Amino acid sequence: MGTESASVFSELACELGEGPAYDPGSGKLFWFDIVGKKLLEKKFPDGPTTLHDLPFMASAIAAIDAERQLLVAEDGLYVRDARSGALTLHTALEADMPANRSNDARVHPSGSFWIGTMPKDEGAPAGAIYWFFKGEVRRLFDKITVPNSICFSADGQTAFFTGKCPNIIHRVDCDPTNGFPVGAPQVFVDSKDADGWVDGSVVDADSVLWNARWGGARVDAWSPDGKLIRSVPVPAKQSSCPAFVGPDASRIAVTSARKGMDASARAADPEGGKTFLLDIAVRGRFEPNVLI
């Protein structure tokens, strides 16, 4: 494992690394450079990192089946042929809002998909969080600035997200059969007094929420009752999103970014934009296929 708290999984540095998703069928991790319009993939634990050029900004990917993936892009959801990379528009989403793009997204245990959108300039709260299930789209929450931390409990009864209030992770009860929220969101974690910003999250089999801390160079672990129980350093200041990886989902990969950094900031953060593996073991779990 080594003595560091995290080791480099991929040396390719992204401007805005985000949206990691592990496919246990192929043993590959997929992730994005959103502003670079790239999809990256690498077989776990070793192998080259493959870059795929995209015609748009995209931020999340989920398996449909062994041959197809669903890719979340700035103007909609696209079916991607896993072998050829061919993209076919499946469902338009905010296609009439070119100032917005997609951001954080994750598959609920039922196979539904929560998808966040945001203004490209991170200005006015013009984004939203949507629910997608078997071709149907509904808007769940609006007036979102930067949606993040979308993730779910293993039993599908709880969803987590942020974006309505800076540095507050909300939780909301869900119908476990379809991932649709029931009731009003409640505060799960209020971290306004900590350095950095809440970014992407995943929930493990023990109901611990692992959150990448943008600007904080770490991944924080939050107990089921919202208490900070552990922080694992990451050798990049702008750590962005975690994902469970490996044949038994026992490791955590985390993306990072160099976005917004000037030359001096980049020099001070030489590992920025790379993708890492935390040097710890966890009881992770795989995400289900998305139902389109």
Q: What spatial order of strands do you see in the largest sheet?
A: 1-24-23-22
Regions with little confidence, pLDDT below 50 for 5+ residues: none
CATH topology: Neuraminidase
* SSE string, helices as H and strands as E: EEEEEEEEEEEEEEEEEEEEEEEHE
- Biggest sheet record: 4 strands, antiparallel
The level of helicity is under 10%
Q: Please give the CATH architecture.
A: 6 Propeller
Number of strands: 24
Care to describe what's here?
The chain has 292 residues and is mainly β. The protein has a single domain (6-278), classed as 6 Propeller (Neuraminidase), CATH 2.120.10.30. It is built from 1 helix and 24 strands. The chain has a 4-stranded antiparallel β-sheet with strand order 1-24-23-22, with no helix packed on it. It has a 4-stranded antiparallel β-sheet with strand order 2-3-4-5, with no helix packed on it. It has a 4-stranded antiparallel β-sheet with strand order 6-7-8-9, with no helix packed on it.
Task: Write a concise keyword list for the protein shown above.
292 residues; mainly beta; Neuraminidase; 4-stranded antiparallel sheet; 50% strand; globular
Give a summary of the structure in a few sentences:
This protein is mainly beta and 292 residues long.
